[in-house]
Design goal:
The structure holds 3 protein chains of 3 kinds.
Chain A: E1 4-13, E2 16-26, E3 31-35, H1 42-50, E4 57-62, E5 65-66, E6 77-80, H2 92-102, H3 107-121, H4 136-149, E7 154-158, H5 166-183, E8 186-191, H6 194-200, E9 203-208, E10 211-216, H7 218-223, H8 228-233, E11 240-249, E12 252-257, E13 260-264, E14 272-278, E15 283-285, E16 294-306, E17 310-317, E18 320-327, E19 337-342, E20 347-350
Parallel strand pairs in A: 3-8, 3-9, 6-7, 7-8
Antiparallel strand pairs in A: 1-2, 1-4, 4-5, 9-10, 11-12, 11-14, 12-13, 14-20, 15-19, 16-17, 16-19, 17-18
Chain B: H1 3-32, H2 51-58, H3 62-93, H4 99-110, H5 114-127, H6 134-157, H7 162-170, H8 175-183, H9 188-203, H10 207-212, H11 221-231, H12 236-267
Helix pairs in contact in B: 1-12, 2-12, 3-6, 3-9, 3-11, 4-6, 6-9, 9-12, 11-12
Chain C: H1 9-16, H2 39-65, E1 68-69, E2 77-78, H3 82-89, H4 91-122, H5 130-142, H6 145-156, H7 162-169, H8 186-210, H9 215-223, H10 228-239, H11 241-256, H12 259-265, H13 277-286, H14 291-318
Antiparallel strand pairs in C: 1-2
Chain lengths: 367, 272, 321
């Protein structure tokens, strides 16, 4: 059990910079998710932590030890690979025992740990089988078990759920989280799926293009994204954006853009060009107004996503594409013209130049 | 042309060419089992006469020739397989300076024919007093065999998923342990193919033996056959029996492991 | 077949293509801790040592020898590159290479043509039991060349040989002759043996290639109204480029290296009707005391083999693979 610390970590491949100045503190026992699109550097960061890639600059520490030059086997870590990497010619039992045998752990201790992990992951029935005889889900659990029996200081997981079908993924997500909470081992988990990140992580580190965009709890990332990238990346369906010119009016905020003219008395006066972010749940059909909606704005329906319990409606307002949220079903078709309003507390503001969030102090920021 | 006629034509072509491929071989086997005195034209069958093989073995000395071939072939193949696995592993899964260049050297050496090397090899071995020894046959053939074997095993090891190697490394396995306990059990088909190909090439090697060996006791099978033919212009059945003896080991291996032979010889191919 | 055949061009191409792993090159700062580094050289050492000692060193030595005129016993005379200029100027050597060219037709072109014929047919029909045919067709490849030579020498025998017997039985006895003893027929007779040895490989190789062509290509051609011949030239032939290259490379090199066959059947005769470079290397080095010339010839042969492999590979690749 140990904390992990990245300090100014770089990774360069010739002229290509895969990771730039990554500094991240992971607390002992924490489940930290590294999330980002392909090429964001999240996997590279994980592999540097594992010792599978060399470190071009900066330091990585596990516990009190700087591990830059230490071989993977000496780092007291265990890793779950995306393709599981189970030893094909060995039984599940031998797969689980492999690392322990290499470390000369006593036979009865090996037996105990393997059985323990098998019980925890419910794979006891497969101990004699070979990996080729397992289903995807079973193989994934064996890969997990192989990491468990090592009882390392840190678990590393490289997109372990990517190769599972959607339903199995949801189920296994919960199992991994449950297991982690039982053993309370520091875990660094890489994924490109922000839903996985939001549901599993104690904290989430969002990476993009080699750089750490923001680290925080799921709630922090959702409610207070540090920049446009994080705002657009976290949350499903994604946040919509439109450009507007802000000015102060009557002590409040006025936003003007293509087809948009909003007066928001509750918000502080900002000025200049802004990029405004709107989550679907902060954009509603007008239906006469009220409920604190600002508007009405008028737009053309571009799509209707009816999901049974809820419906998302895409509207086009002067070139900006926004998504509206509606409980239940709605009788709309693309081409219809609708009136809708925005919830002022649900708006987020970003600088058009560098995407940084513009902090807007307010008593309650909920949406 | 209708499909039916095309099908018949195809079968006909396949049949005819298969027949032609097999006929000479059948012919020589047939000749080998005939009695010398009653040697008749092909088409007449006088009964099977296995004495010829026994005669060839003893008087024709083919027993000795086979033994020499066995010694040379087994030595070459065993050592070459081992060395090729090690070198192929290094080229396939390790990074070190100059790996690319060194591999190209192997590759180029692979394309050099024996004819180019036979002259200096002979004079070098002569100067060392090693002509007319098994070493003269074994060592050069290991040299050419590892060129092929290294190429082959490297190609195989490059297909191994790197996550498997990394998992083993994380689990604390040394490179040696990973090779023998994790990777090689998977490599059996590749190793087997390499083994049968090297066996075939080594067993069938003629020029090297012709140049290096004059001692009757060291003659390998192909060389022995050539020598026997030189002495035996008239006793055709005995010659045929000798030929059959020389060819049999590889053919038997082929019958049981044909998939490996064919796959091996074609695979240089169908990667294009 | 004797020593290992060359590796065919497409496989070479695979060897040369840059792998996506390892990333980052091999400079020391790019290597993760604990990854095998210098130990790689150790794994390599035994194989490379034997290879260097018995392939590379002899090659170098061959080049050295080729610069002298030497009979193998008494001291030699320095001649520089004369032995190499002999390769093009000496009529005996020129004839040898001409004969090799003829043999290439028999060893390479004929088998590939046969293979293409079969491949063309197999593109249109489904044949069962292909595995059986493949096994039989491949058999000549597996038998030692010396045995093949002995076999065919017996077949070509003027008195008792199967060929002449066959001709006599069908009433063409007048055609029966000494095939390997005739100045004009000896070379083709030897060539046909090569054809026999290699057509099986060509057939197997090309038919395997044909089965990898996506059926949609044929469907498209047929919809466009292509008949059998058009279809062959428009779809089958281009798709088989790689396999044809391999077949041609393997067989051409075999044609150049056919020492065993010539030694057993004709020893270069009658006269020098079947003299080929491979046999000349042996004959000059060990029979007529022209070691330097033999060495130069061997290296020239190697150069020709390299050139042919390279050329075939280039042509195949240019065809858009």
């Amino acid at each position: 059990m140990a904390a992990v610390r990245f300090t100014g970590v770089d990774k360069r491949y010739g002229d290509v910079v895969a990771v730039r100045g990554l500094s991240l503190d992971i607390a002992d026992g924490e489940f930290m998710v590294l999330v980002g699109p392909s090429g964001s550097g999240k996997t590279t960061a994980l592999r540097m932590l594992a010792g599978l890639e060399s470190i071009s600059g900066g330091e990585i520490a596990i516990g009190e030890r700087v591990v830059n030059r230490i071989a993977p086997r000496e780092r007291d870590i265990a890793m779950v690979f995306q393709d599981y990497a189970l030893y094909p010619q060995m039984s599940v039992f031998d797969n689980l025992a492999f690392g322990l045998r290499r470390r000369k752990v006593a036979k009865d201790e090996i037996e105990r740990r393997v059985r323990g992990a098998a019980d925890l992951l419910d794979i006891g029935a497969y101990l004699d089988r070979k990996p080729g005889q397992l289903s995807g889900g079973q193989a994934q659990r064996v890969a997990l078990g192989r990491a468990l029996v090592r009882q390392p200081q840190v678990f590393l997981m490289d997109e372990p759920l990517s190769n599972l079908d959607a339903q199995l993924r949801t189920q296994t997500r919960g199992e991994i989280k449950r297991v982690q909470q039982e053993v309370r081992t520091t875990t660094v988990y890489v994924t490109h799926d922000q839903v996985e990140a939001m549901t599993m992580g104690d904290r989430i580190a969002v990476m993009n293009d080699g750089v750490l965009e923001q680290v925080g709890t799921p709630e922090e990332l959702y409610e207070r994204p540090a920049n446009r990238f994080v705002a657009g990346f976290i949350g499903s369906p994604a946040m919509s954006f439109f450009d507007a010119a802000a000015s102060g009016e009557d002590g409040g905020l006025r936003l003007r853009g293509e087809g948009i003219d909003l007066r928001l008395p509750g918000l502080p006066p900002l000025s200049g060009e802004l990029s405004v972010g709107v989550r679907p749940e902060a954009a509603r059909l007008w239906n006469g107004g009220g409920h604190g909606l600002a508007g009405p704005l008028r737009g053309g329906v571009t799509y209707v996503e009816a999901l049974g319990r809820e419906t998302f409606v895409g509207v086009d307002v002067g070139g900006a594409r926004l998504a509206l949220f509606q409980e239940g079903r709605i009788a709309l078709t693309p081409g219809d013209v609708v009136d809708f309003g925005l919830v002022p507390e649900g708006l987020r503001f970003f600088s058009p130049a560098d995407g940084a969030a513009i902090a807007v102090p307010s008593a309650e920021r909920t949406s | 042309m209708t499909s039916r006629r095309e099908l018949s034509l195809t079968y006909a072509i396949l049949g005819v060419f298969s027949l032609i491929a097999v006929l000479p071989i059948v012919g020589i086997v047939f000749t080998a089992v005939q009695d010398q005195g009653e040697l008749a034209a092909f088409g007449t069958f006088q009964g099977v006469h296995l004495d010829n093989f026994a005669d060839a073995w003893r008087d024709g000395n083919f027993g000795s020739y086979l033994r020499s071939s066995a010694i040379v072939t087994v030595s070459v193949v065993a050592i070459s397989v081992l060395l090729s696995i090690l070198a192929g592993y290094a080229f396939g899964l390790m990074r070190f300076r100059g790996a690319q260049v060194l591999f190209y050297v192997f590759l180029l050496g692979l394309m050099v024919p024996t004819e180019a090397m036979i002259v200096p090899l002979y004079y070098d071995f002569r100067d060392l007093g090693l002509t007319d020894t098994y070493w003269a046959l074994i060592l050069p053939q290991i040299g050419t065999s590892v060129a092929f074997g290294t190429f082959w095993m490297r190609a195989y090891f490059r297909t191994v998923p790197r996550s498997l190697v990394e998992a083993a490394r994380l689990d604390g396995a040394s490179s040696w342990f990973t090779l023998w306990r994790v990777l090689l059990p998977l490599a059996r088909p590749a190793v087997l193919t390499m083994t049968v190909l090297l066996f075939m090439w080594t067993w069938n090697e003629f020029l090297l033996a012709l140049v290096m060996v004059t001692d009757e006791g060291l003659r390998t099978a192909p060389l022995g056959l050539s020598f026997f033919q030189g002495r035996n212009q008239t006793n055709l059945t005995l010659l045929a029996a000798g030929a059959v003896i020389v060819a049999t080991p590889v053919v038997v291996l082929y019958v049981f492991l044909q998939r490996h032979f064919i796959r091996g010889m074609l695979s240089g191919a169908v990667k294009g | 077949m004797s020593a290992p055949a060359s590796i065919s061009p497409p496989a070479l191409a695979g060897a040369e293509a840059a792998p996506d792993w390892p990333l980052g090159g091999t400079r020391s700062d790019a290597r993760p801790p604990g990854e095998p580094r210098r130990v790689g050289y150790l794994y390599l050492l035994p194989a490379f040592a034997v290879f260097a000692a018995f392939v590379l060193v002899p090659l170098g030595h061959a080049f050295w020898l080729s610069l002298w005129e030497w009979d193998g016993v008494s001291p030699g005379t320095w001649v520089g590159l004369d032995n190499y200029s002999d390769v093009v100027s000496d009529p005996a050597l020129r004839r040898a290479f001409m004969h090799a060219l003829v043999l290439i037709v028999f060893y390479a072109l004929l088998p590939v043509a046969i293979g293409l014929l079969l491949a063309g047919l197999l593109a249109r029909v489904r044949v069962r039991g292909l595995a059986f045919f493949r096994t039989v067709l491949f058999l000549p490849q597996v038998v030692a060349m010396v045995v093949v030579a002995v076999m065919w020498r017996m077949i070509y025998d003027p008195q008792n040989g199967a060929l002449n017997e066959l001709l006599r039985t069908v009433g063409l006895g007048s055609l029966a002759q000494s095939w390997l003893g005739d100045f004009d027929l000896a070379l083709p007779a030897v060539g046909l043996v090569g054809t026999w040895v290699w057509y099986g490989l060509a057939m197997v190789l090309l038919t395997a290639g044909v089965q990898k062509i996506p059926p949609s290509l044929f469907d498209a051609a047929r919809v466009d109204g292509a008949g059998m011949v058009r279809e062959f030239f428009a779809v089958t032939l281009p798709a088989l480029r790689g396999e044809i290259a391999v077949a041609l490379t393997l067989t051409t090199i075999a044609a150049l290296r056919n020492f065993d066959l010539v030694y057993i059947t004709t020893k270069g005769g009658p006269g020098d009707a079947t003299s080929v470079p491979a046999f000349q290397v042996y004959s000059r080095a060990f029979e007529s005391g022209q070691v330097g010339s033999a060495a130069a010839l061997g290296l020239s042969l190697t150069a020709v083999i390299f050139a042919i492999s390279f050329t075939i590979n280039r042509i195949a690749e240019r065809g858009g693979r």
